Task: structure prediction
Amino acid sequence: MKEYLDKASEIFGPVAAPAALFSRDGGAWRLEYLNPEAVKFAGGQEDKLVEELQEHLNMGAGLFRGKLLGKSIYASVSVYPDGTAMVLIRDITEDIRAQEESIVAAKAALQSALDAANAANRAKSDFLSNMSHDIRTPLNAIIGMTTIARAHMDDRERIEDCVEKIDLSSRHLLGLINDILDMSRIESGKMTLSPEAFTMADFIYSLMAVFRPQADRKNQTVVLDFTGIRHERVRGDQLRIQQVLINILSNAVKFTPEEGTITLTVRENRDVGGSGRNYAYYEFEVTDNGIGMSPEFLEKVFQPFERAESVHRIEGTGLGMTITQNLVKMMNGEITVESEEGRGTTFTVTLPLEQLTDKSDELRELRGLKVLAADSDAGSIENLREILQDLGMECDLCTSAGDAMEMAADARMRGQDYFAILLGWRLPVVDGVQACRELRAALGTDIPILLMSAYEWPYSSDEMRKFGISAFVPKPLFRSRLGEALYAYTEAGRSAKHVDAEGNTSFEGYNILLVEDNEINREIGVELLELLGASVECAEDGREALEKFERDPDRYDFIFMDIQMPVMDGYEATRAIRGLGTPKAIGVPIVAMSANAFVEDIRACERAGMNGHVPKPVSLESLATVMEKFLSAKKPR
Amino acid sequence: MRRYQEEYLALLGEFTDEPFPKESFTDLESFISYGVGAVREKRELVYKGTELLRTGLFPVLDNILSASPEEIKELEDFAGMAMSGPKRRDVGLNLRIHMALLSYARHRGDKAMLIKELYNVGMALHNIENMLQPTRIRLYRVRIRMCFSEAASYYESDFYDKADAETRGYIHRSMGNIVLTYDGSTTENALTKLRLSGRSIKILSDPDVRAKTPELPWDVYLYKSHQERTTLLSFLRSGRAGPDAFAQVLESAQTVQERQLQAARESGEPLQPRWQYAYMAAKYHCGAMLLSDLLDGLYALTTARGPMEYDSSGMFCHVSAPAYYMEYSKKTTDPRLEQITSVRVRRMTERMISWLRGAPRGSGDDQLTLYLLQFLYAYREMEGAMSFYELVQTVIACRNPTGFLRMYNSGSIARLITKWAVEDCPEKLVGLPGIMRPSDAIWNRDMLMDLAFRAGRVYDVGMLHFVKLEIGAPRGLFEEEEDILSLHTQCGASMLSLFASTRDCVDVANGHHLSYDEKSGFPLGFSAKQSSMRAMIYIVSASDALACTEEETAGRYRPGTSLEKAVEEIIRGAGTKYAPFIGELLEKPGRVEELRRGVAAFKREGFLEMYRRRSGESDE
Result:
């Protein structure tokens, strides 16, 4: 003990801070010494102090910031090789209090300066801070889409889709910034419009790209009804119309609780224009079942900087509806609002737009062709019927995949295949993707199958091909989009773009020799290769394959070779074919099909003269991938 | 169970992850001879296991569509046993079998089996992809998502009501696992993960859904979903999370925390260190804790377990907690905190290495690999702390001793080739750091030789990600495993690029498997010709081939080729696979003899260095 005390006084002599010395006692730390400052610090709670210090010691040496006896402290813990440990404590309670006081004082000074500034310039700062929300919305869409595009650099379609949405959101953003800069011009009515041609389909899709994520964040249901649109190609200031609708729709999201419903309906009223041009009124109606507005507020809803008293937490510039009304007026339109507190609100914007001619020349190709369509609800089916009839097409409609499969099979038996099949993705019992697989298995690849969905399509084109889907048509359905999608599979459409029913490179015209001893594997192989458009001949072992090849080498463009086979295995057969020495025998692609998937086995295939390896069990995707490596699309015969 | 299956599982059980024991050796020769013998024995096990699968398993998989129900059952059991062995698991084999079973289920139209196999394949792919942590490389994300999504989609079909409890369980587990493919790295990704987790949690909490199948462990599913949603904590600090995101993530963090506290109370044990960390992190991420307090707490955790505790908590405290500490400490520029951190980094590193040296063979395996990678990626080369180069050498010596020996050999050979190049063709070295003219190479010979030695000793560091894959099972590699292994170049480059002490070796790690003419090898998209380090890439690439000529440094499937043959191959491949100047250097009379003498010496030096690093002893 004495040497500890000596050591302590030697150490602590010049130290005015609280300090303690401990020694190791088995697994615990035993107090050896508390200096007077430490006793003072403890204020009668020495035992508690020692207990807390022992806890700190268990965490090892180092500097700690924390609490001792409820006081804020810094503690330095040193552990010596002889099993002793010293703790030096610095009480920083006062420092922290002083710091806090100075922060409070500084804050008060700042607050008063800020209040003064705010008072002097309240309108402007409110305007700027509130406006930032409206800027953020399209900016978020741009950032989000850029992220998605970057993550799918090898998926051209996805990137095109993102770029399109980025383009639209950027334009919207630019529009908003222009609004801020030209606020005085808006008020003095000096703003000009920029009419341009656009289609309602593109317009609605781009509107949804900005709006739907907002609604999704609040789990709100978005109902779209465009059944009343007959003419999609129009001329108008697309950017301003979008701005108007986004303002209204964003308000609907803000003032509608989670899981509420927002409905956008677009109708077309003909024969209202004049001046020799073909004008029609388009009515955009946005209805929500949100908090609604009081009659008093309803009267001043279009006045600047007005917001309902009860919605302090909801962000907004208070300028949105003023801008909206001004823009609608500029476009010679009208905006009305009906609302009931607690029940919801309906905004109706009516705008005259010039109607332009559709791409009817191309779509004329579709006239008289017959389509089978299946969708889950009566509304969608009715919409589909109207569009298809409008395109001059015949159609059979049903509401389940089972019916669709039966109708397609009947048509095949009658020798009257449909020109195309349209399937809703979310069909009851068997969904569209599964139905597509079944239909492909039953009907082969001749008939295009298009999948329709309001949901974002999550799969790449490769994955679509795997499911046997020819194309994806986004909902809501528009005449133009659906017509263009179907046109791609008409004679004229196909001649412009060499695709098979699935939209893939087809191996039509190629003759494949499939060497496989197992009957089921052979059947599956034939089925898959035929799905890819190729014709297939089979050999049951290597010997038979060799004989067939020797008999007519030019007959085969490609050989799939099983490895483990009776009579002659795949290695031997390959060596024998290559050994024939003719240019054809040396050049014909031979690919192994085997479950022997060790890298060494694959090397053995290469050494035997094979060009590649497909692991078993094989899939459509794996066969197509390996064939694409060696065969170019569509062999002319 | 078939005989080949039993035999393979027995082999799997006796297969050790590395051949060198922890015990001390009295002399270097016996250490070398033990190591070489053990490597040889291990290779024999690989041959045996490969043959067992080739003759027993593959014929069944070859004709899986016509397999009998008994064979299918045996395969299911075999795949399960391969994942639940007492010592080790064969993830690749498990995947291969389940992929075949999935095809079988599809072909048979057996929906219950299809759902189960979709889940199994998704999990197997997820287990393999886990090896790529903590890089951003995600090979199978889409495939995993598709498997789980397809299985989960049956929740909304009529089949759900007809399915038995086990199948419903797979449907719900798949639904919960879709979120595994979202890492929260972007806002979009995090928001999607939030949405999907929310949906899954809502369904799992629905009393009506639970009542349909009361025998399912709903609370476990729910807990797992909350646990996964808690991984989005860091998203909260990103400034991109809205109040909804805060509410959801914190709700999950709290649920997980409560469960852990309850478990701790029931067992009478203190809260596990990893949950202590999670609790602190949750408080920090939602703004209720200062960074300095979080760091203090984390540092305390690093000493919460004794240096000889090798259980999972010991592993967390010694390896993972310091990694978290270092990662979080990067967020501050406060000089006081930085000063404290530099001291702590030194201590934590010393403690981690000491723990790693003592860790028993095979301990932790997958988890330890992930923690070590986490440590390495988070490491901070601060004043007074060990350089990353030194640190990683020791980690490799402990975790991948054959890799250490190969790289030591390569580094030494690269140094020798560089010496020859300075003497014979200094112009080929122009472009390397500080070498503007051929004469610079002559004046800076020692610096260049040192660079070659260092580059040669870290170029394969990316293999640390795949230690389990490379040496984990007594069989040859499957094709997809080789594809994954080929990512080690990018993984290594990404790790080396983080540190000042290894940054100059990044291109060597990236390009050492690329042929000179850049027509073969990997990675795609990298061009050695564009690199200022190209001469060093060529030198190390050839050194790698020459280093694999010893029993202990050759591949796992074949004994090393002779040095003469390796030299011949380089000379033959000069201009295509290897740089022409390397071929010319090796053709010069006397060079092969000098190389042979060198390799013999390097072998001894390598073993000695490895022994020193593994044991912590500074001399023989």
User: Anything to note?
Assistant: The longest helix of chain A spans residues 93-151.
